[in-house]
Amino acid sequence: MSKSTLTAVILLVTILQAHAQIGVMKLVGKNTSNYSMGFGGFVKTGFPVSDGSDLTFELGADIFFLNDGYGTADGTIMCPLKAGYRYTLDGSGEGFYVEPQAGFNLVGITSLHDVNGQQVNLHYHGVVFAAGGGYLFNWWNAPFDLNLRYETVIDHGGSNNFISLGISRFIRFGKRSAGY
Hints:
By secondary structure, this protein is mostly beta strands. The chain has one helix spanning 3-18, and strands spanning 21-28, 38-50, 53-65, 75-88, 95-113, 119-139, 142-155, 158-169, 171-172. It has an 8-stranded antiparallel β-barrel with strand order 1-2-3-4-5-6-7-8.
């Protein structure tokens, strides 16, 4: 068995058993070209409010490393807490959906070096807005969510913006009247 096949199998088993929720993301906008791809983990849950929609809550941690030439772990970390409303387009609770979210960034730290080579840590909090969509499906009686979203964290007139692609084994509380 090749290393990539073994890695894929281990990742799949981890997702199935641990309800893992992971994502890869890219900072976009002004002054973000020196950041590498970011990654994050999150816990997302939902409460059905109708056959085709859920009220969602999400707590995450997103990390972006800065390629600044110092060979250190400079970068940005954000920990947003968000609430959202997910609506499946066919009204079934599965398939394609749209989801606006709003919340607050609990922890935000950007670590970098100034022109003198000294490390500087900038701390921030702020309002979070996100808009996304995705596809909900069942695999081996486990609900999965493949999603794409745009998110912005606003603080002191500036913002961190990123695009995220994630997959999760969705944790749902409550049952739909349609039996999903």
